[in-house]
Input
Amino acid sequence: MLQVGQIRTADCSRLTRRGLLQIGGISALQFTLADWLRLRADAEDHAPAKSLILLWLWGGPSHIDSFDPKPHVPLEYRGPYSPIETSVPGLSICELFPKLARRADQYSVIRSMNHESNDHGIAGTISLTGSIQGARSLGGLNLPGQVLATHGSVVSKVDGFHPTVPRFVTIGKKLYQGPQYITGDEGGALGPIHDPFRVNYVVGSGVQLPDLQLTDGVTADGLTNRRKLLSQFDQLARLGDSPNARRFDSFYDRAFSMLTSPGTRSVFDLDDESTQIRRQYGKHHFGQCCLLARRLIERDVRFVQVNWSSHVEGAEDGGDWGWDMHDRYFQVFQDRHSWQLDQAMSALLDDLDQRGLLAETVVLAVGEFGRTPKINPKAGRDHWNQCYSALVAGGGFRTGQIIGSSDAQAEYPLTAPYKPADLFSTALHQIGITTTRLTANGLTPQGQLMEELL
Output
C-alpha cells in the first residue's frame, strides 16, 4: 500500500479528493490547463527571469561580520575579522568569504535592509510574507490579522496549476523558534493548496520526501493536515460529477502520477551528480540542499526555498545549527557557518552560470534580520532588525554593486531603508509576478520595486 503524505491509497493511478492536496505544490483551482499555459507564456515572454532560489539564513547572520564590514570602528564593534577586496572595485566583504569575494560581479549587496521587529518569529513572518499580520512572537502571542501567504505560495497562486511539476518547493522542515513553529512559511490566507511541496535532506541518508513517504504510520500532524484540507475538498465535492470536477480529477491524477513516477522522483536523487560537483557544493547539509535547488529549477520549479536550518538556535541550545548565536558566535561562525555559506553559494552561482541558468534564475541570500553591531558581554551578537544585509544574484538583475549603506557602525541605514517586502516584490517582479498579475488574482502587492536592481 502506498501512502502519499499521510493519505493512503491502494491504487497509484487514482487518488481520492481527500488525499489530493497532500502531494503538495498543486494550485489554482480556477485555472484550466489552457488558461495556465496562456498566462504562463505571456509572463515568460516579458519576464527577464524564470525561477527564484531563496537561500533562507534562518536565525539572523551578522551583517558586520559578512557583507558590511566596518574596519575602522572600535574592536567591540568590528570583531576579529578583516575585510578583503572583491572582484568589484570598492566592494569589500569579510575575509571568511574568499570564494564569494572572487564572484562579486555576479551579485549585488544590499546594506540598508530594515524592518520593525527583532523577534525571530515576527521577523520571519515579515520577511517571508512582506507583512506583520498574524505573526507569532517567541512568547506565543499572535498579532492581529490573517497571516498572508509566503512568497513561494504567491507564485503558486499566480502561476496556477502546472501539469507536470510543483510550482513551489521548500527544502527543509518547518521553521521554528524555540518549541513552536512560526507563521508565514506556508500558504496562509491562500489555503493549504498553496503550501510548499516539502523536501528534506539528511547528511548520511540523502533526500527525504515527507509528502511521498512509503510508510504505514499515521501521525498527529497528518491528521491535522487532513482536517485543514477537508473544507477545501468539500468545495470540490459540491461540484459533483460536472465537467469541471472531471477536469480537476484528471489534473490531480496527472500531478499524482508525476510525483510518484520513478522518472520524476529521479530529480531528488543526488547520486546522479558527479562526485566532483557534489564536492564543489560541499557534502554538508546546506551545500547539498543548494545542489538540489539547482536540479529543481532545471525541472522548471519556479520558486525553491532552501532553509539553512529549521530552528534558529545552534546545536548546543537544542537547535540544528541556526544562525542565532548569542554567545560563542565567532567560534561557530568561523569554524562552520562562514565557510559553508561561502562554498555552497559560490558553487551554486558557478553551476548555474556554466549551465546557462544564472541569467534566468534569481538567487537571494538573506535572513530575518542581522545582529547587533556591538559585541555583547558573552562574545556574541544579539538580534538586530534596524539594519542588515542581503545578497541578490542572477536573474537579469544589475550586479556587481552596493545598494544602500549603513552608518559608521552599521547600526542604522544611512540611506533610505529597504523593507523585506521591497526586496521580494522586486525579485518576484523579475520572474513575472507583476503587480498586474497579483491584483488580477485578488492579491495586494507588497512593497516597492528596487529600481537600482532593474
Notes: The chain has a mean pLDDT of 85.
